[in-house]
Design goal:
With 130 residues, this protein is an alpha+beta fold. It contains 1 helix and 8 strands.
Amino acid sequence: MSETCAFSGQAVIYLYDAALRNWGTPPVSGYSRLDMYFNAGAGTYRVIGRAMDNPNNVLINANITKEVVYSKTSDTFHQWQDPRSLYGMNFGSKDGADQFCANFEGVIAQLQAGPGARSSMPVPGAAKPA
């Protein structure tokens, strides 16, 4: 079964440099597109971050597991950490950041609840209620 996009957002992407103990320079200038993909057959999620001006330029390709930690360090700067990396996102608006955060935290909650748990996430491709 293929993946479907569960939700998206736009932000400037940062990768944490552990050796320098600081956020590195963004890999591209300007905003990137962040897509959360869901594989219903496997029950897995991953985030793909692509440069807005070149969708073939993949900046992030990270599996999301129940161990991922998501945090808001300011109204528009959020970060998440997996066992390998720390990712930062600087959103253009508080509303965009809040929406992405709510969806991302919903994915983590669903993964922590385990297989068979009812999802509060919208089903990708499903009609939205009027």
